[in-house]
Amino acid sequence: MDWEYASAPESSAIADIKDRYLPYVDGSFKEGNGEDRDTVNPGTGERLSTVSTVNAADVDRAVNAARRAYQSSWSQLSGAERGKYLFRIARGIAERSRELAVVETLDNGKPIKETRDFDVPAAAQHFFYHAGWADKLQHLGLGPAPQPLGVAGQVIPWNFPLLMAAWKIAPALAAGNTVVIKPAETTPLSILVLAEIIADADLPPGVVNILTGAGDVGSALVTHPGIDKVAFTGSTAVGRRIQRELAGTDRKITLELGGKGANIVFDDAAQDQAVEGIINGIFFNQGQVCCAGSRLLVQESIADEFLERLKQRVETLRVGDPMDKNTDVGAINSEAQLGRITALLKAGIAEGAQLWSSSCPLPKNGFYLSPSIFTNATPSMRVTREEIFGPVLTTLTFRTPDEAVTKANNSPYGLSAGVWTEKGSRAMGMAAALRSGVIWDNTFNRFDPTASFGGYKESGFGREGGPSGLAAYLDTDDEVVR
Amino acid sequence: MSHLAVSKTYKLFIGGAFPRSESGRTYQARDSHANFLANAALASRKDLRDAVVAARKGYTAWSKVTAYNRGQVIYRMAEMLQSRKAEFVELIILSRGSSSKIAAVEVDESIDRLVHYAGWTDKLAAVLGSSNPVSSPYFSYSTPEPTGVVGILAPADSALLGLISVIAPVITGGNACVVVAAEENPCVAITLAEVVATSDVPAGVINILTGNITELAPHLAAHADVNALDLTGAGTQLREPLEQAAAETLKRVYVPKGDPDFTAAPGTSRLRAFLEIKTVWHPTGALSLSGGTSY
């Protein structure tokens, strides 16, 4: 018997998508002097809206506005007052949460159940958490009166547009900095709705400035001489370039870059639970997650059985319309990203890995890819080493815990890892041995503003969330100099 | 009958041993009056690469040592330095031209600096880590871990205190290091290596090269198995190209804000610069939500 779900689409009416969006500088929405860009709905492949983008002169104006705001208003406020603005923003996000979820899904392509249940509530929580820190910075253990850095230049990616904006803006403001932030060119809409919330909260003009545009705008921003702090989330290649460009400048940098997370399944794991966790690890947000569990390491003695269970479960994932509340896997964010993933799929096949893909039907229009699993992969293959940033899992096997640790750590990246075992001592021992910034024992992709997040090795440096995330926006240098 | 003194051959310190430079090169260390003091090894790129290999092994051993034991080992370094105080005072007077009083103060402060860091090893997790009250049924904690292998360019103006002030915070956190000693002070640096070698510090945790910083530093900054760099001794000329080279593998780079005053109480900047924060999540299940726990 063939069971079929009736479609259950969320209405797009609440998003009230406008025909044109403007960058937000110095407290108002102003036409940028760059070229207009269309933003596309990845679920349909059709134009969603048009966004006015900025040029270098606009970057200059925004940085100056942020500097003025830092000097004249934001740094004059008490921590308690700063905190109250952040609480207002947190409430504003919660109040417009369904609208934000729909905007995000339309612009990004991720399933509505993810934006509704994760992205938007987590963004509100980030503001709420950091609001409370604003008048308690002296309790961070960084001295009696930690000082802000000044103007923060921030560049965020397209995979969690609103949430990344919250991760960047909330700690910066709580610590007393002002912000110039650039969203990705394919996902500018949700942060411009956030700009409305910020404006409604009466945040002083220039404290948060939002610049639209592509990589050239981001580059102009992070290298602008008026910036005191750079925070970037994105690819390791761009992070490396930013660090190189800022060599010798004393500018404090935090980089949250790529990953190739190992998800390790031991023979004593609760297999059904592990299957769910592996799926969450690699198919959450279509695998377009820097901390995705993209390398499955499964103990050899259970490998065949486990992979069979995994494939059976992946077959049942519903791939398609991101606006459908039943959808598990939505659209890839852009045609270009779909092309990059497909190129790596081909590279994996050419190198001799075996590709299995779910037989699920895909919508005709929009950017979609079937959830896929590589087996028979070797550690030297590109699909094992490189971040695919898509719904593609690469599978390796191991025999002993030591071998699992060695294989998991055999990567220039070090962002995340997962461990599946029913043995508590092994779980905690593995957590200590893995060289990654976040370890999930018998779970995956858990995030919380109280728990710091960030990478080892070439996954970047600096943390977001928790006390160490605030340190990234404060002058923490306490060495006495002559 | 007078006794002809036996003078020391100053060699490199790599992996717990004292090899000559594989290049066979030496340079002349001069005293404060520019007179010949000793021949020092002029380390090569190959020596540096050997030192990084040794440091990676040292890191593996050292990062497994308990915090309590690491503290004891660093305290042992202080003991060894204390017992050789006279030798260091004499060397500092000779090589730097310091008065005996100033040299004695520098050695005393160096001993105290090691004692200070010996007491840090088992406090880092409490001060820099946290238990995270996450809003879901998980036990989550964040804890500092060593960054790995740290390349250190030692400062030139503080022969012993400066050298110890850059090494101690790095090893306190559980890292291993490859130190390029200040070119002018090879004798103090290699004599300190003798302290290290007799202090139960595992082989490879501290490796010291003497030679030309301009020759060695670019290779250290570009080495893919070095995780972090301390550019204290780099000087303004070298700094930018070294930071550029470091960016290729996303190294953490510590650059002091100015000319560090090593006689001042050390803060925590140097400790934090070479630590990573790891966050671990562990499920607590339904019990944690229903059992009236503190979550």
Distance between the termini of chain B: 80 Å
CATH superfamily of the largest domain in chain A: Aldehyde Dehydrogenase, Chain A, domain 1
Q: What is the number of domains of chain A?
A: 2
Say how many strands of chain B there are. Answer: 10
Give the number of helices of chain B: 11
- How many strands, which pairing sense, and closed or not: the largest β-sheet of chain A? 7 strands, mixed
CATH-assigned fold name of chain B = Aldehyde Dehydrogenase, Chain A, domain 1
Biggest interface pair, residues each?
A: A-B, 50 and 48 residues
CATH superfamily placement of chain B: Aldehyde Dehydrogenase, Chain A, domain 1
What integer value in Å does the Rg of chain A equal?
22 Å
Question: Secondary-structure element order of chain B, as H and E?
Answer: EEHHHHHEEEHEHEHEHEHEH
CATH architecture field of chain B: 3-Layer(aba) Sandwich
Dominant shape of chain A = globular
Unreliable runs of chain B = none
Strand content of chain B: 15-25%
User: What is the name of the CATH class of the largest domain in chain A?
Assistant: Alpha Beta
* Residue share in helix of chain A: 25-40%
Mean pLDDT of chain A: 97
- Largest beta sheet: strand ordering of chain A: 14-15-16-13-12-17-18
Overall structural domain count of chain B = 1
Topology, please?
The complex is a heterodimer of chains A (482) and B (295).
Chain A lengths: L19 E2 L2 E2 L2 E2 L6 E6 L4 E7 L3 H17 L6 H17 L1 H12 L3 H22 L13 E2 L2 E5 L5 H14 L3 E5 L6 H12 L7 E3 L4 H8 L6 E5 L2 H10 L6 E5 L5 E4 L5 H13 L11 E5 L3 H13 L19 H16 L3 E4 L14 E4 L6 H4 L6 E7 L2 H9 L6 E5 L3 H10 L4 E4 L18 E2 L4 H6 L2 E2 L7
Parallel strand pairs in A: 1-5, 7-8, 7-10, 8-9, 10-11, 12-13, 12-17, 13-16, 15-16, 17-18
Antiparallel strand pairs in A: 2-3, 4-5, 6-20, 11-19, 14-15
Helix pairs in contact in A: 2-4, 2-6, 3-4, 3-6, 4-5, 9-10
Chain B lengths: L25 E5 L5 E6 L3 H18 L4 H17 L1 H12 L3 H19 L5 H5 L1 E3 L5 E9 L2 E5 L7 H12 L3 E5 L5 H12 L8 E4 L3 H10 L5 E3 L4 H13 L4 E3 L14 H5 L1 E9 L3 H4 L5
Parallel strand pairs in B: 5-6, 5-8, 6-7, 8-9
Antiparallel strand pairs in B: 1-2, 3-4, 4-10
Helix pairs in contact in B: 2-4, 3-4, 4-6, 8-9
